[in-house]
Amino acid sequence: MILQSILHLLPLWLFGFLLVILLWPGSLRNDLLLKLALGFGVGQGVDTCLYFFWIMVFGPYTRTLEIVEYILCALLFGMVVLNALRQPRINNKPKAPPILREWVILAGFATLLLASAVGFFLLTVTRPYGTFDAYAIWNLKARFMFLDPQHWQNAFSSALNWKTHPDYPLLIPLNVLRLWEQIGLEVPRAGSVIAATYVFGLVGLFFAAFYHLRDLGQAALAGIFLLATPSVLNIGTAQNADLPLAYYMLAAALLLYLAVLRPYRGYLLLCGLMAGLTSWTKNEGLIFMVILVLLAFVVWFRNPRNLVWLAIGMALPLVNVLIFKLNYAPPNDLIASQSMAALASKLFDLTRYRSILISFSLNLLSVGGWKLPILLIFTVIVLILRRQFSPHEKEAYRVFCYLVLITTMSYCGIYLITPHPLEWHLHYSFERLVLQVFPMILCLPLLGMRTPREWGSENHKTGNDTLPTQKATPNSQ
Amino acid sequence: MNISWRKIWPPLFTAFLLGLAFYSSFLTLRSIWTTYRIFRTGMDDPSVWAERLSGLENSLPKGFNVIGYLSDGELPGVPYNLIDHDEEFVMSQYFLAPRVLEFGANRLLVVGNISSPTVTPSYVEGQFNLTLIKNFGWGISLYERKKP
């Protein structure tokens, strides 16, 4: 059943991979690992957007949808081939061959990856249905749509209890539903397979991004720290939307970082797409997307063409979210259940600020389920091992920092206005919310510190754009 | 001997961080192994709940989109655990989908999930004007609203 699910996902991954190849600047063979890591998420995300349109226009799933997807894949393949033939071959700076200490760290990463895969499998076996949110929210929607496809809108019925959050967006439910439809059975393993794709996709993206931006040693270190974070496996196997959201947020943030370094059209389109998919994954993604757009506006307000590419990338998932929210979803329980006066009174209640601040500080100290305050330890080590950025990198890093900081702060704002008992809400969701931004937070020290290759170097100025060496006009790719 | 701290600190700190990472992973995997040995397949709450509800699910007549749901929390004066109450409600909602469950006894069909040993079906019938259709065991029963 697991193998069957993976076989059904392969065309989506191919579709996403081809789309990323088509948009990525430079030669076809450059940054293959990063293209793969982004491609799977693009494939699974865009497919759910198309699937939602299909359901709205043609009704329940049929094999015709698969045929349409294969045709799209073939078209993309043709475009990639044409593009490759037409474009001059632009190669990245060749990476230096790995040194011994990089091999050692890479071996550690590979061992941990294998152990985590076994851990994921064992944990999935003990909880095939995931945890509370999986069957209360995400898989429940998929089950409604699978068992009564003619009345699929009932999955968002306002008669449903608020704990099932019928207004939450559909990326995860449609991913699961698609597998159930293709297999022809409602099997809990489908949800586990989707969860696995995002957990290991997130690790893959983290590794590939640091391999692209820094070097092999730092990529392996990054992968190790993410895999060693207890919540990644614990929450990852829960079949919630938090890890998928972390994946799309990280992808969008890294693409924004790359776009600030060099505003290629491909980076901007993909950044927009990934940011849009965050809002199609979970409501918090909407907040993240708005923050990213505002930051992009600040960075490029003198160059509106970059903002247009970003908006084009965002369009498909954003249209989905708007159609879903305006036509099908009931009002959100955080907003709809209270008056403006109640909201205002919460905003001015200082005790709420204190509770949130305490909970936030405690969560940051044990972020990701670590037994030690890992972020504090990282901060100290980065202060000692810090490197110098090139001016371009400095700007990109600053934007990345703002994105992480404002997103994290905005999460505190959610708790400020929650209509539910504050302590209860903080207790049951803060760890998961912090995990959504944790990979981005982890990027900050890892981007700012010297890599194992640079340990002995006296000059730590390691401006590494790792971008095509041939001159290429931004926006022309 | 001339020691260059600049060269010693980086591998030392990285080794310390790697040590932390591997120890953390060891603890996580050990805890997963313990969970696996205790629970294994089919021992998790939803799997157990699916088994308990299977009789009820097969007995529900077609055409009822919204069904009432009564648990210990809806009975006056009966103590209950809020976490169990929520957990069992959402599990019931999941396994009885595509029917919508609504807290209370205002629907023609009402599912009872009452674990308190002091509450009998006749008490529920009297309290909420219901008639017991079938008792499925484990505190799960199906009621029908009495016709006026």
Task: Please explain how this structure is put together.
The complex is a heterodimer of chains A (477) and B (148). With 477 residues, chain A is mainly α. Chain A contains 19 helices and no strands. The longest helix of chain A is centred in the first third of the chain and has 27 residues, at 32-58. Chain A is globular. The two termini of chain A are 41 Å apart. Mean pLDDT of chain A is 88; it is low at 462-477. Chain B has helices spanning 5-39, 45-59, 82-96, 121-128, and strands at 66-71, 100-103, 109-113, 130-137, 140-145. Chain B is elongated. Helices cover 49% and strands 20% of the residues of chain B. Chains A and B meet through α4, α5, α8, α9 and α17 of A and α1, α3 and β2 of B.
Write the layout of secondary structure elements.
The complex is a heterodimer of chains A (477) and B (148).
Chain A: H1 2-23, H2 32-58, H3 63-86, H4 100-126, H5 132-147, H6 171-183, H7 188-213, H8 216-227, H9 230-236, H10 242-261, H11 265-281, H12 283-300, H13 304-328, H14 333-336, H15 340-347, H16 350-365, H17 374-385, H18 391-417, H19 422-448
Helix pairs in contact in A: 1-2, 1-3, 2-6, 2-7, 2-11, 4-8, 5-6, 7-8, 7-10, 8-19, 10-11, 10-12, 10-18, 10-19, 11-12, 11-13, 12-13, 12-18, 16-19, 17-19, 18-19
Chain B: H1 5-39, H2 45-59, E1 66-71, H3 82-96, E2 100-103, E3 109-113, H4 121-128, E4 130-137, E5 140-145
Parallel strand pairs in B: 1-2, 1-3
Antiparallel strand pairs in B: 3-5, 4-5
Helix pairs in contact in B: 2-3
Radius of gyration of chain A: 22 Å
For the biggest sheet of chain B, the summary is: 5 strands, mixed
Structural class of chain A: mainly alpha
Spans of at least 5 consecutive residues with low confidence of chain B: none
Give Rg of chain B in angstroms: 26 Å
Order of helices and strands of chain A: HHHHHHHHHHHHHHHHHHH
Judging from the principal axes of the Cα atoms, what is the shape of chain A? Answer: globular
Beta strands of chain A, count: 0
Q: What general form of chain B does the structure show?
A: elongated
